[in-house]
Write a structure and sequence with these properties.
Helix content of chain A: over 70%
Strand content of chain A: under 5%
Largest sheet of chain A: none
Largest interface: A-B, 51 and 54 residues
Radius of gyration of chain B: 28 Å
Strand content of chain B: under 5%
Structural class of chain B: mainly alpha
Low-confidence stretches of chain A: none
Shape of chain A: globular
Oligomer: heterodimer
Chain lengths: ~200, ~290
């Protein structure tokens, strides 16, 4: 029992901090750079990711375990996963719109953006490569999304601060944001001692 | 030939050659349009990784463009996005299996980024913007041009990162200890200390930042000469990042605050007036 809990904890720490999805695996860079102008929107995007990535990890791993693997169709995983994720996002959006209106109002704008987020597919594929169980892959998905939220909220905070700084003209905009993320990446390599 | 028919570099529009050069130079996806940044950052730790990734992407891009262009009249408009995704994902699976069989070391090195070619915005962007509206041959060459443009860009980025971070070029030691360069130049080169951070994650961000800054400078220079630069710059998924003057941003913010204050004061004054009026009417009633 303790072994499983320790195992799950180590998966959580590895997925959220040590192998941070944006800063060490470069997945989900588009929303990371695109939706990080304000802290509130960044947090909203992060929460939408937590929701969708956890759910997608569970569903894709279940499909792999119960359909693709027994039928020896695991070479189809890329096609199946991307279709499932796209459908899942659509379905979640419709479900929230109909039944959980308050959640839809806070997350709704970000949901269609998540289909293009390569982190979702990346986590789903990594779960299969690492041979995680259903519980482990859900936890891994959740922790990865939490790591994404941490990174994007920190970056949004930095961007709010540096907006008024007088930066050389060619470095304004994207390059400054990228340099800020480079410094964050250096800081996050410190977490590798936790492994 | 009328001016409207002229495409890239003076070639007739939509011919194979024009499409090829357009993707390679005029609309280079990485350096000019700045789309598909995830693989650009992730796999450029060495030149050979960049080259392999680029060629795999080129293969998928060219063939998916051709197939989507063939099917463009069959696919209904409402379900085109899932249809495109299935076509692209099929070719990606093909590449994945071939690489696993014939170049297993590269397959191991690139790992999860090969299946992730599916979500590369260059491929989907070209399918949507070009292949779904044009004939098969130009679409195919559009894919090849765009793919090779991407390949060149990420190979060069990989080359720089590898050279600065490890002192090697395509796994041949040029700088640092054990340099293959002979003579006094070789001795001089072997004194180099590799800057390890450039092959780590942070290096990718730094290299890309400097690259975009250089492209921005090129854009400003072109603007000074009065040339059209509308195609330049951050496009695709990162499009909300336009360049702003910090002073102007501050001025705008101050203006907004001042306006809000003025509005709030107006509301207060109005409230006072209504209170006064109500009091006045109350007095009248009392009388």
């Amino acid at each position: 029992m303790t072994d499983t809990i320790v195992g799950l904890l180590s998966i959580m720490i590895t997925a959220s901090l040590v192998n941070n999805v944006v800063l060490s695996q470069f997945l989900g860079l588009c929303p990371f750079l695109g939706v990080s102008r304000k802290t509130e929107t960044a947090f909203g995007m992060g929460m939408a990711c937590v929701f969708v990535i956890s759910l997608a990890s569970l569903v894709t791993n279940a499909i792999y375990k119960f359909i693709l693997h027994p039928l020896d169709l695991s070479f189809l995983q890329t096609i199946v996963f991307i279709m499932v994720i796209a459908m899942l996002v659509q379905f979640v959006e419709m479900f929230l719109k109909k039944f959980v209106v308050s959640l839809y109002q806070s997350l709704g704008v970000y949901l269609p953006l998540i289909t293009t987020n390569c982190a979702v597919l990346g986590v789903a594929l990594n779960n299969v490569t690492n041979g995680y169980s259903l519980l482990e892959s859900t936890i891994c998905g959740f922790a990865t999304a939490v790591g994404f939220t941490i990174a994007i909220v920190i970056l949004a905070g930095i961007r709010e601060k540096i907006e008024f700084n007088d930066i050389p003209k060619p470095f304004r905009g994207m390059p400054t944001v990228l340099l800020a993320s480079a410094l964050m990446a250096i800081a996050f390599t410190g977490f590798s001692a936790l492994r | 030939m009328s001016n409207e028919n002229k495409g890239a570099l003076g070639f007739t529009k939509d011919t194979p050659m024009e499409r090829f050069l357009n993707g390679l130079i005029i609309e280079n996806p990485t350096l000019v349009l700045m789309i598909g940044m995830c693989p650009t950052l992730a796999v450029t730790t060495s030149a050979i990784n960049g080259l392999t990734m680029g060629l795999a992407t080129t293969f998928v891009l060219a063939l998916s463009n051709a197939v989507i262009s063939l099917l463009r009249k069959v696919i209904p408009d409402t379900v085109r996005i899932p249809a495109f995704i299935v076509v692209i994902a099929s070719f990606v699976t093909l590449v994945q299996l071939v690489m696993q069989a014939y170049v297993p070391t590269m397959y191991e090195a690139l790992g999860v980024y090969i299946p992730l070619i599916v979500v590369n915005c260059i491929i989907f962007g070209r399918a949507e913007a070009y292949a779904s509206k044009h004939d098969v041959l130009p679409s195919f060459f559009d894919g090849i041009g765009m793919g090779l443009g991407f390949t060149c860009a990420i190979t060069v980025i990989g080359l720089f990162r590898e050279l600065i971070g490890g002192g090697t070029m395509f796994n041949v030691q040029i700088l640092g200890e054990g340099s293959v360069v002979p003579g006094p130049a070789g001795y001089f080169f072997s004194l180099y200390q590799p800057v390890r951070i450039f092959i780590q994650q942070a290096g990718a961000f730094i290299v890309l930042a400097v690259l975009i800054a250089i492209m921005n400078q090129v854009k400003f220079n072109l603007e000074k000469k009065g040339k059209d630069t509308s195609k330049f710059g951050v496009g695709g998924c990162c499009s909300d990042l336009e360049i702003k003057d910090p002073h102007k941003v501050k001025e705008e913010l101050l203006k907004k605050e001042a306006e809000e204050k003025a509005k709030a004061e107006e509301v207060k004054e109005e409230a006072k007036e209504t209170v006064a009026a109500a009091a006045g009417s109350g007095e009248e009633e009392n009388k």
